[in-house]
Each structure stands twice: as C-alpha cells, then as structure tokens.
Amino acid sequence: MELGWLLWGAALLLGLHVLTELSAAANFAVRLGFYYLLCVLGSALTAPVCVLVNGGRTVKNMRIIKAVVKTFKYFFGLRFEVKGLENFEVEGPAIIVSNHQSVLDMMGLMEVLPDDCVQVAKKELVYAGPVGLIIYLGGVIFINRKSTDSAKMVMAEVAKTMAAENVKVWVYPEGTRNCTGDLLPFKKGAFHLAVQAQVPVIPVVYSSFTTFYNPKKNLFTSGKIKVEVLPPIETKGLTSDDVSDLTDRCFHIMRETLFKLSGHPGEVKDSS
Ligand SMILES: CCCCCCCC/C=C\CCCCCCCC(=O)SCCNC(=O)CCNC(=O)[C@H](O)C(C)(C)COP(=O)(O)OP(=O)(O)OC[C@H]1O[C@@H](n2cnc3c(N)ncnc32)[C@H](O)[C@@H]1OP(=O)(O)O
Ligand SMILES: CCCCCCCCCCCCCC(=O)OC[C@@H](O)COP(=O)(O)O
C-alpha cells in the first residue's frame, strides 16, 4: 500500500521534471524562433527602403539596418553597457576584430557599429532569404571559408579598396561562432588585411553570453552584455613577417578583456 503511494509520488515528480524540461525547451525555441522571425521580417521590410533611399548595394545602407536592428534588444530584455566608443575615432580606415558567440551577435554588432563599416561573412549567408538580401545590400564582403586561396584573394582586393573608399572592415577572427566563454584561436586573415592596407586594428570584446544564453541548456533569458572597444593597435611599418605576432597580441589582449568582463569560463561571477 505505502509502496504504491511512493511509486505514485515518484511518477508525479518525474512527470513534473519532464514537463519543466519540455517547457524550457519550448520557451527557448519560441524565443529564438521569434528572433529569426524578427530578422526575416525586418530584412524583408528594410530591403525596399534601402533600395529606394540608396539605390542598391552600398555601405550607406548599414545606417538604416543599424537603426532597425537596434530595436530588437527590447523584445528580449537585453541591455548593453558600452565602453571605449571613442576608440573608433581613427583617421581613415581600420580593421575591427571582435569575438563571435552566436546569431544574437548581430544585435551587439549594430549597437556599436561605426559609420562606413562593412563586415566579412561566410558566403552561405547570402542564401538566407531576405536576411541574405539585406546583408548583400549592406555591402558585406563574402568569403569562401573552405578555400583559403579564394578568401585571400577577396581580402587582398579589400585591402586595396579600403583606402580608396574610406571604409572600416569588421572581421570575426575566430572564423565561426563560439559560445564557450573563451576564444577560439584566431585566423590570420584580418591581420594580413590590416598589414596590407597599413591600417590600425581595433579590438572589440563582448562579455560572455553564458549566464543568459546557452542553447545546450535551453537557456535564453534577459541579460546584460558588456562591450569594450579597445585602443587601436597601429600597423604602420609592419610587414607580412609580423602578422603572427600581431595576431597573438590581439588575441591575448582580447582574451584578457573577455575574462575581465565576464570571468574565466566555469567560474561563476555575479552579474552586477
Ligand atoms: C534590418 C533587419 C536585419 C536583421 C538581420 C541582421 C543583418 C545584419 C546585417 C549585416 C551584418 C552582417 C554580419 C555578418 C556576420 C557574419 C559572421 C561570419 O560569417 S563569421 C565567418 C566568416 N568570417 C571569417 O571567417 C573571417 C575570418 N577568417 C579569416 O580571415 C581567415 O584567415 C581566412 C578565411 C582568410 C583563411 O582561413 P584559414 O582557415 O585558411 O586559416 P588561416 O590560419 O587564417 O590561414 C591559413 C594560412 O594562410 C595565410 N593567410 C591568411 N590570409 C592571408 C592573406 N590575406 N594573405 C596572405 N596569407 C594569408 C595565413 O597566414 C596562414 O598561413 P601560416 O599558417 O601563417 O603559414
Ligand atoms: C530562409 C530563411 C533563413 C532565416 C535565417 C535568419 C538568420 C538571421 C541571423 C542573422 C545573421 C547571423 C549571422 C551569423 O551569425 O552567422 C553565423 C556565422 O557568422 C558563423 O557561422 P558558423 O558558426 O560557422 O555556422
């Protein structure tokens, strides 16, 4: 008799546990789905505006895209605390490098994006429907990550046009998304580009999302993201022999800043 009740109790607890897990998964899927929906709808509505206002593919469209994307954070209760924006005020072009954690990074990107700045993206994104179209209209540079040679050729061309058109280029040097609270080793393309164009590198670091966003744990709540724009690193006089050193320097400064902003991975830090 008592064993019967015990079994019923255990079944109930298990049921509740399964329900909570399911609702966490559903909640996560709904929130991320809503983000995708915002991106798709936002792009579909913004693309005609870009074409009408600026006539086609140009970096000027980034101002319009930025204004739209900057409203997204309110839907998800995300707050940004930005430091060092004055470090973007360099004379002429620059390469901006930052850490890349998730698709949500587009919000953080647009939160601080300086004028006349295009990003480097994997070419697959051009096929992402309306989002691909808006990225194309914004003047984003597409590279084939599977072919280093063709990516190098595209980047060499960019090095030439940067000065002529006075644009900054934003690169995610990890080359892919990484939401572990640490950095992946940096690819060298961004730093070759900076040395070829003889322009400064400006590192930007976003604090780790792990306290409010973790797809493995179905976690996606509101939260605060700290952003720090670091002082420009000059490359005048550097040659291709210095690229490895430059890459290492940037990596270490950015990793230090990442840990300062959000603690070492695995270590709990209060989110005040
Ligand atoms: C209105 C509503 C709208 C809502 C929607 C929002 C829309 C928002 C709108 C707009 C925002 C758009 C934002 C898009 C964001 C997209 C993010 C991404 O897609 S991230 C993935 C792609 N990005 C990268 O991958 C870049 C970084 N990668 C590189 O730069 C790599 O270096 C690359 C691809 C060039 C090569 O990668 P390797 O995997 O081969 O690795 P390596 O170690 O770098 O290079 C191998 C050898 O080649 C040399 N090398 C590399 N680049 C060189 C170069 N340019 N010249 C000479 N040598 C070079 C290196 O020194 C290395 O040689 P040795 O090991 O040193 O001997
Ligand atoms: C046909 C409809 C498709 C809908 C797609 C909506 C996507 C909206 C997301 C905004 C752009 C996100 C850019 C981004 O973060 O791309 C990921 C790459 O950086 C890194 O790629 P990966 O980690 O190596 O796969």
Automatic annotation (TrEMBL):
Pfam families: Acyltransferase (PF01553). One of its GO terms (cellular component) is endoplasmic reticulum. Its EC number is 2.3.1.51. The keyword Transmembrane helix applies. The chain crosses the membrane at residues 34-53, 125-143. Residues 94-209 form the Phospholipid/glycerol acyltransferase domain. The HXXXXD motif is essential for acyltransferase activity and may constitute the binding site for the phosphate moiety of the glycerol-3-phosphate. Converts 1-acyl-sn-glycerol-3-phosphate (lysophosphatidic acid or LPA) into 1,2-diacyl-sn-glycerol-3-phosphate (phosphatidic acid or PA) by incorporating an acyl moiety at the sn-2 position of the glycerol backbone. This is 1-acyl-sn-glycerol-3-phosphate acyltransferase. It comes from Apteryx owenii (Little spotted kiwi).
